[in-house]
Records
---
Amino acid sequence: MKVSVVLFTSDLRVHDHPPLRAALAAGDHVVPLFVRDDGIAAAGFAAPNREAFLRDCLADLDAALRARGGRLVLRSGDVADEVRAVAAQARADEVHVAAGESAYARSREERLRTALARDGRRLRVHEAVSTVVPPGAVTPSSGSGHFAVFTPYFRHWSRVRLRDPLPAPRTVRVPAGIDSAPLPPRAGVRGLSAGLPVGGEKAGRRRVSAWLRNGVMAYEDTHDDLPGDATSRLSAHLHFGTVSPTELVHRVREVGGPGAEGFVRQLCWRDFHRQVLAARPETASADYRPRRDRWRGEAPAGEEIRAWQEGRTGFPIVDAAMRQLLHEGWMHNRGRLLTASFLTKTLYVDWRVGARHFLAWLVDGDVANNQLNWQWAAGTGTDTRPNRVLNPVRQALRYDPNGAYVRRWVPELAALDGPSVHEPWKLPPEERAHYDYPDPIVDLAEGRDRFLRARDQRI
Ligand SMILES: Cc1cc2nc3c(=O)[nH]c(=O)nc-3n(C[C@H](O)[C@H](O)[C@H](O)COP(=O)(O)OP(=O)(O)OC[C@H]3O[C@@H](n4cnc5c(N)ncnc54)[C@H](O)[C@@H]3O)c2cc1C
């Protein structure tokens, strides 16, 4: 009997799963393994919304494996120790795992390789599982080995010939006698967003099908429409790997048209940030391009930070988006952009404060996408116009022209008609007094000037 272990990490699916297919091709038995890794909790990356979604994913993966005659083996502890122990118990020859991009994923790979080698076992790392194009597969002709600007990256990325998607295996045979911890139920997780979606490959594949049927065609025209809510909402599935990004790109390209092209471009942003993080792992917390900022911190900005986090800044569009985050564990991309610009530029607060708050709530919270998008918004990342400041009122009038998004999330203002909901401070005082809603915590022009002065820009 030839046995291999497949270590699942952020690739919790059976369709289009190169490590699982390779393990099945290498022998007759596999151990599908997931380790609840102490290191991730210790790094402060665990958050209730993601924990609940993860539990759904594990239950669904176990069900998919059982339908094929197998099961998921669950362990918790130090990932290298657990994998080594399972491989020894199963007398496996090799362990298959998807490549990761973060510093943590890379050091995990190294620790696994070393631990397994001690027993004469081999680690096989598979590329293009969590990304469409692996980091480093396309590089600029000169410079640092990675693309610092999106547009040329996208041009090169678009020309890469993708591997074909792999079907889910029909049967998965797991050797008897491998211990597994029980799967933890979602019900045990506290502090969840009320509107948190369900995780798992089945839910992810259903969402992809619905999106290809009804959403993607109009994406180019509707992706910025805040009240329309017309994006795919696939981000959490892509983060946990319940949807394969490679298979998704193939299927979207089959649909074709401007909506499909725009959507594929957005998926490329995901790979773009991953190749930046792979090349510069320290940018998970350090500035990609330091600008000599002297950010405002807890003192003197603590009150403003809390108002931003809780959605009571007095700017209805900012507050609506921040409340959506708390309620759903998700926020529309346009909301993420304008709330991040508001915190880092208008309030001139360190992007790490905002990134931490997002990671505490986002079900799709992802080191590469979150930290590098925050830096993009703060102007310390890859934005080619690092000092642009988004005006929240102008953003509101453009992307929520009738105010429906604000009325959905800020019920205190629901009685205000049309775009007047975006500027309650302009109401006559006697009418303003009817609304239990705060005054703006900052003067937009003063906030903008403070930021531009700090960046040494002419005002
Ligand atoms: C400050 C800030 C923080 C962010 N934090 C995260 C995060 O933690 N995790 C995360 O997945 N995305 C993050 N994003 C990117 C983007 O906002 C979300 O991916 C998107 O809103 C998810 O919704 P969707 O799946 O409906 O997106 P769609 O518009 O349907 O896009 C499809 C997919 O493309 C990818 N994508 C879209 N926009 C971006 C982008 N700007 N950068 C990278 N990938 C993108 C995502 O995987 C997304 O699921 C952040 C953006 C900003 C401005």
Note: Residues 376 and 382 are 6 Å apart (CA to CA).
---
Amino acid sequence: MRRALISDIHGNLEALEVVLADIKAQGITEIFCLGDIIGYGPNPRECIDRVMENCTAILLGNHDQGAMFDPDGFNIGAERAIFWTREQLENPNDRVNNERRWEFLGMLPRSHRLGPFLFVHGSPRNPLSEYIFPEDIYNHRKMERLFQLVEKYCFQGHTHVPGVFTEGYQFYAPEEIDNEYTLGDGKVMINVGSVGQPRDGDPRACYVILEDGVGAAPGSTAEAPPTVERPNPGPRPPGTDPETGEGPDTPTPRNLATGAVRVTFRRLAYDHETTIQKIYAISELEPFLGDRLRQGR
Ligand SMILES: [Fe+2]
């Protein structure tokens, strides 16, 4: 079965629409969102609505949390953007929808597990806010500790820098591996990049397709048969642990991954000038938040 993994949308509706259309065009129906739907960008409400409509597992990001509670640890520009975002979600003219959006944000778990796959926003040690940067491969102590917490494969966002971390202290940027990586016996942590604010020097929106190998030969795009495929628990179905998102139906590593497990990084150009002009027009959002979209920084 193939799933799309998106993260760090940050209120960028133009980027999100292009990514969702690309996912749909490939016949992928299951989308996981690894957090930071809002913050920085000009369309927080619309992005929340799209994620609610299209994603089956959705995690809390630090900016999502910052909008709900007192933001902590953000720079001035990010904090002002969070306060503006909160205002949009408190707009009395959109009261009914906003109540629904607050309720949704308040229910988001911090991690999600599916067989050998762990999904977090930041890191397996601190799912909400720890960064794992490419240069952390030189901090062996940090990497060892993080990998101790990973059973097999971990997917994360938060840095907005896509790529693959191996247990052997390597980091592969997507362009170094032709945008594809086949998962084997070794543990890996994979950053899925950012839909709405890439920071690896490439301004195009980024997301990942995860092919879990269930019910399909390597290279095949066939979906898993119904006997293997399981319903995704969603943000928090009844009986689900609110912290981990784990439910009673979570499959074990043994009954997943019988074929090749492969990730593909997708990069998509979008109309970032429209997003930039929207940001410029909102005085609470610093112009830098627009400029950086043009540079992918
Ligand atoms: Fe983010």
Note: Residues 116 and 250 are 10 Å apart (CA to CA).
